[in-house]
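agent> Task received from the user: take the single chain below, predict its 3D structure, and emit structure tokens. No templates, no multimer pairing.
agent> Plan: (1) validate residues, (2) run structure prediction, (3) serialize to tokens, (4) report one or two observations.
agent> Step 1 OK, no nonstandard residues flagged.
tool_call: predict_structure(input=
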Amino acid sequence: MEEETSLTDEIVQGGFWAGFATLLNRIGAFIFSIILARFLFPENFGLYSLAMSLATIFTTFADFGLNSTLIRYFSSSMKNKSKSAKYFQYIFKLKFFISLFASLSLLFLAYPISFFIYKKPELFMPLIVSSLFIFTFLFSDFFSSFFYAIKKINYIAIKEILSQIIRLIITILVFILLLSSYHVLGVLFGMILNNLIMILFLLIWINKLTPYIFKTSKSKEEEKIDKKRVFKYVGWITLAYISGIFFTTTDIVMLGFFVSLSYIGFYKVATSLIIGAVSLFTHLGFVILPSFTILKKNRLEQAFNKVLRITLILSIPTAFGILALGKYFIKFLFGDAYMLSRFPLYYLSFLLLFWVSITIIVAVFFSHEKPKYVAIVTITVLLLNIILNYILISALIRISESLAIQGAAIATTISFFFYFLVISALLKKKFNIGIIKTNVFKPIIAGLIMFLFLYAANSYLFRNITLSLGIIEIFFGAAIYFLALFLIKGISIEDFQLLKRMPFLNKLNKLNHNKI
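)
tool_result: status=success, residues=516
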């Protein structure tokens, strides 16, 4: 019982810091996207978005699932410093050479991609600069994931504060000092500089907390690690990650063949809102991965459903909130020039119902060295996503570009729904873990009630929504949701008690106790 409480505290506190770091990341990313969208305007924002989507694909090839591999094997061998250091050094070497290869690949392929494949010459220079961005980003991300392995996630929060501030300052200076024709390249160079600064900070902190990982042990017995086991794990997780990133970027990459850069910009605004909301919850997978690794099957199901339940309670109302208020988010954040983004956003809002659950299920497979099944499912769904995107985009482009980007949103949403069904079935088959249906349906019912209230209010009471009124509506909607959830017994006093285990509330409670 004491061990279970300790594990719950570990997950809750880790979840808090991961959530806090992700919140900082998304707030910074939203502000960053808003600034880019407003200063670059739809066409240049579309150019930037297409370049970054292509760079992301190369980034995933270079990742090779090595971040999750580092978390998995370093956390499982931490008691043996020599062995854990050896794991770190081996995985780091793989990371370096693969990252260099990916960066050089994009560098050499930038010309044919721009001139022959997409027939957009203006894409050439952004891809050249993106090749250097890939190399710096991969190492910043790799060193960040190390803090999940050693369960010092508060350092990631500090890194996010620094990163977002520095990136915003550099970006603003780019728009002030450079001509508009150089804004896209200036932003990319600024992101490279930010990555280099973050790598420096991360290395300093890692050396402070675990200086032994940079040292080579003289004892051959202690240094032995199962490289074959690691490589097998990396192989399957690589397939999962590569197909996963293709899966999440298929829509924009395929739209690049059919629609103008402006409509790619419209679609990117919609996806940035959804990804921002999703990432508030999906980073929990990195937090629970080390904890799921040490759990046996009888305790794994209980821990899984507890984590999934709390996550769904928070993510489902977010989906319905975006569905009800999404067009106002676009108007206030990005401006009237991007109002066409609201149409794909309505369809994409449903992704939150599936994407977050998928991430937690995948963490179970990764933690128990079964990435093979994730890879197979992801590749299958990727093929489905490509087919659906092609059918819907190519059919709807004949009517209008606006309908084409809606077709991409519909295809992506259907694919995620299919992914959720298949991976859930595999979870039951391989681990005998079933998702408790009431944990899903009760938040959906409460979310629907909240949506109907907000829809009715906007349709009949508040025709013109101001920023202040929109903020009031968000709090009003949240109150309705939690009240409805409480009345249908979808949330209990025990759930609220979990909040007391959050780091800052723990400290506050101790201070109050000491005063008494």
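agent> Step 4: summary for the user.
The chain has two domains: 10-212+225-435, 437-508.
agent> Done.
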